[in-house]
Amino acid sequence: MTVFLDLGQRPDEPGPPIHGPATYPTDVAARLTADAAGIIGRYPQSRSALLPLLHLVQAEDGCLTPAGISFCAGQLGLTDAEVTAVATFYSMYRRTPTGEYLVGVCTNTLCAIMGGDAILESLEGHLDIAPGQTTADGRITLEHVECNAACDYAPVVMVNWDFFDNQTPSSVRDLVDALLAGEQPTPLRSGSLCTFRETARILAGLPSSDPLGAGPVGDATLAGLRYAREHDMSAPDAGTPSDSTPGGGNEQAEAADSVADEPAPAPEASVPARSSTPETDPKAAP
Prior knowledge:
The chain is α+β, with helices and mostly antiparallel strands. It has 10 helices and 4 strands. Strands 2-1-3-4 form a 4-stranded mixed beta sheet, with helices on one face. Strand 3 and strand 4 form a beta hairpin. Helix 1 runs antiparallel to helix 2 (about 50-60), helix 3 packs across helix 4 and helix 6 runs parallel beside helix 7 (about 170-180). The chain is globular, with a radius of gyration of 25 Å.
């Protein structure tokens, strides 16, 4: 049977993986270099700053561009290919121009059961765009997202990665109408809603004139903690041997510690042959 695999970027991301301007104007490059210096200085190894630097250039352009990729590479002593490999691995780095508000609808298992698919379909019709597209005024980009670990309030919609919980097709239409009208609805789990570029600067670790703040923790999130307290349940102390461990010892942890600083064994070309001949595999049939 012949199987054909269609490889490449997601269908809702048209065009090359990363495209746009190749270089920054001198004044923009100087400003970004000053911001990058503060970010890189937080890390003992400069290349560890790659993820926040990608957020920095995404805040500048609204998505990743060849100019942003080259800037990050130059700051960290990496090649453009190395930076691109990381940038295209993570879904939070956008490859196409993004509106002021990135509206993501979760349709993973629980959200789908609770109505996520209906919410996404409702937004597609209401905004007249498909996932990956932006409204004509540049305000909203619609996105289909995977699980965001907010199943306790499914179905969940995210706006610039801020949660809007327990949504319905009707409530989410009201939400995007408010965004289109220039309003900023307050997320349930943070103090305020920032634009996409402002959020990217915050994720880069830079100061913001409108910090996200913290919102209240909802009852559904605390249900497990309340149950544990009511039933006098607690996690075992770190390092305490489990009663289910034979002999009550901690042999596995000790074995792991003994080889913690040793390099992993290299692959051996002879491994496949060991199970094919009696000479290399005692279990092989004569």
